[in-house]
Amino acid sequence: MPKDRAPTRIQKKNRAAILEAALNVFSAHGFRGATVDQIAAEAGLSKPNLLYYFPSKEAIHTALLSGLLDTWLAPLHELDADGDPMEEILSYIRRKLQMSRELPRESRLFANELVQGAPRIHEALSNDLKALVDEKTAILTQWMDEGKIARLHPYHLVFSIWALTQHYADFDVQVRAILGDEDPFDGAEPFIDTLYRKLLTP
């Protein structure tokens, strides 16, 4: 889309529609399985109209991932070194679980990108994400040194939180097939809360 002037209301609406449609298509089919034609049809636009806003499928995918990474990092940013260690960690876990509940398509989009080797966000993972995780694991290590939480490998503690909470979005079909009519999040939060409370108690 031309950048020499501010976008009109219609242009903003169309761009948002394209990104929303692309989120549906990419989360369902992955980057390789998705096509510009599918995204245009989902957005209710012609292919030439879509290409006015984004020159390629990769440009759409990159725009989605750029916004998603900020969203994904936000819960970890909130981990406060001055707070109660147990409650800070459990609150982080609850925020991550809530994201899986409210943003399952975004979670699957992110997971698909990682499975493919993260070609479009590898630099961000190696820089922004790593710097943030290094900062927060230093806080976890300090709490462990002070005897406020049990001593565990801080990085693997973070990885386990990601794996447990994001499972409910990335493997939603499997989880719901097993649980039937039960909302998986009704049981997930108390189970994960109990698990980590016991794990982290010195």
TrEMBL record:
GO terms for molecular function: DNA-binding transcription factor activity; transcription cis-regulatory region binding. It holds the Pfam family TetR_N. Residues 35-54 bind DNA. GO terms for biological process: negative regulation of DNA-templated transcription. Residues 12-72 form the HTH tetR-type domain. Keywords: DNA-binding. The keyword Transcription does not apply. Gene3D superfamilies: Homeodomain-like, Tetracycline Repressor, domain 2. InterPro entries: Homeodomain-like_sf (IPR009057), HTH-type_TetR-like_transc_reg (IPR050109), HTH_TetR (IPR001647), Tet_transcr_reg_TetR-rel_C_sf (IPR036271), Tscrpt_reg_YcdC_C (IPR013573). This is Rut operon repressor. It comes from Ruegeria denitrificans.
